[in-house]
Automatic annotation (TrEMBL):
The keyword DNA-binding applies. The lineage of its organism: Bacteria, Bacillati, Actinomycetota, Actinomycetes, Mycobacteriales. This is MmcQ/YjbR family DNA-binding protein. It comes from the Bacteria. InterPro entries: YjbR-like_sf, YjbR/MT2646/Rv2570-like. Keywords: DNA-binding. The keyword DNA-binding applies. One of its GO terms (molecular function) is DNA binding.
Length: 132
């Protein structure tokens, strides 16, 4: 039985995430478990999710990502970030994007996606990103 769709294609925040995530080399979008996921071979971002231990109250505007290992501890200390259900055990973090409305906020999202992409993508895709 397929998972129900847990997002709205007209969601403006999803549109912003898509635009940024799909700009990375070789990236594709695939619906998995009812949510948009962004992949370059493997998954590097998920739109929507829930906090670990709170699977009954999903955050529809959350972005789940793989943080840069050197920044993970600082991000965990920031109240805006959380350990997500299911993928949190594998080092992923989440951020609720519902209040991201400034250019600086979206620049931060792009940086988070960039760090996640670099953790997951094959070397050739990272090289293509660096080549511009």
């Amino acid at each position: 039985m397929p998972h129900p769709v847990m997002f709205d294609d007209a969601d403006e925040i999803l549109t912003q995430v898509r635009r940024r995530a799909l700009a990375f080399p070789e990236t594709t979008e695939k619906i998995a478990h009812g949510r948009p996921t962004f992949r370059c071979g493997k998954m590097f971002a998920i739109y929507g999710g829930s906090r670990k231990g709170e699977t009954k109250s999903p955050l529809s505007n959350a972005l789940l990502f793989v943080p840069d290992p050197g920044e993970r501890e600082a991000l965990v200390q920031d109240d805006r970030f959380f350990v997500p259900a299911y993928v949190g055990a594998y080092g992923w973090l989440g951020i609720d994007l519902a209040r991201h409305d400034t250019a600086d906020d979206w620049n931060e999202v792009t940086e988070l996606l960039d760090a996640s992409f670099r953790q997951i993508a094959p070397k050739r895709a990272v090289a293509a990103l660096d080549a511009g």
